Amino acid sequence: MTKVRRKNGIGKDREFKVVHLNAAGVDVSPKEMQVCVPSDRDEKCNRTFGVYTKDLHEISAWLKKCGIDTVVMESTGVYWLPLFRVLKGDGFDVILVSPREAKNYAGKKTDEADAHWLMTLHTYGLLKACFQPDNVTREIRNLVRHRDNLIQSCSREVLHLQKEMEQMNLKLDNAFSDILGKSGQAIIKAILDGERDPERLAGLADWRCKKSKEEIKASLQATWDEDHLFIMKQSDDLYHYYKDLIKDTEAKIEELVNRYSASVDADKAAAMERSKKQKQLHNDVSFDIEQYAYNAWGVNVMRMPGMSKNSALRLLAELGPDFVEKFPDARHFESWANLVPNNKISGGKLLSSKVPNKNNPVGQVFRQCANALWRSNEPLGDYFRHIKARSGHLQAMVATGKKMAGIFYTMVKNKKEYDVSIYAKSKEKTLERRIKKLQAKILRLQNEQAQSGLKVTDGTD
After folding, report:
1. What angle do CA 376, 397, 390 make, to 5 degrees?
2. Which of 140, 126, 25 is nearest to 83 (CA)?
3. This prediction's pTM
4. 52-102: per-residue pLDDT in tens?
5. Rounded-to-integer distance, Cα 216 and Cα 176, Å
């Protein structure tokens, strides 16, 4: 524990020091803003303001009058965002903190007390700021999250479509692996246009289908109930409507990404070594996110095993091009992404080492990328299966996601491409250790056999 105390700077002479002399605290709510400044700046140092735009500018003017340089506020829903933008635009150093960081307040809870408590903690530098991207990145993030919501809505209509077909005993999903493919969509369109003959419907299937024409025709014999057909048509219309909205959203995302992508030399961009991932999925982004991500970060993150187009887009939208400047090293980035256990130590004993129950979009992306490696022949795939055999699937996702987050941060920080040879050498060392361990075990068993005097046969007698 002494080493831990020294590492964390904990000593007898440690005391609270004023870090931010000109600090203010804001308690955010949907209907009012409670702002607190030091008591020597105004006769009424703890004031209540409205939430309209003119009120936000009044807050900014009052803070300037009081000589405030930095402002702290809690991340309460999305109610903090308008005031955050106004204060940032007026030149204040605004930090956003998690409510967990400032919730331990002794005494009666009021808005005035919360604002004063935030100001006090920030004055002594006891609050840790949340990660905040730049304004253009925030716009892209909002659009990418909106695109994800549209994809979920699209998937929900596909489930409705399958439900209505099942209730009519229309076994289209038994005949085709994907009803959203060329054959499935052609048959669904013909059914909604009034075609009921199984022979004609089966003739619309592509010649590459694995099922025979007889099997497809048998799956297309249904009851054709009017109510289910009506709901099926509306679900199909909604599905295609959401698909059109997704295309429009992706066009807007590409416009913003193209605007803020870092400029690179034409020769450098042309020399980018592309990944070998050519398989196109239904929900993959339509534009060349691999090139845009390379322009923003200077390395091709798509060459990492498990990294997909949608994952690269989400990381670009959540982090922005300059995220490495906001984290001192890879460990801090992994901890922020909620991929590191929260070790609770008391009395020199480890009480708990669970990963905190927090929803971090970046951490979720790396977990999904790690989950895609469970059948991969890459060294990261070997690592995933090793952790899975020892601790389970969920622990393997977290552990592999943590390793991928560290690799991702290092690639962007040092502008070095993914090099599988480094992990190949590590795999060789691991195999050598396993061989030595097994050889030692065989030697121990042979010694036990010699001491007991038993004769082991090879089973051919």
Report:
1. 85
2. 25
3. 0.81
4. 999 999 999 999 999 999 999 988 888 999 999 999 989 999 999 988 777
5. 8
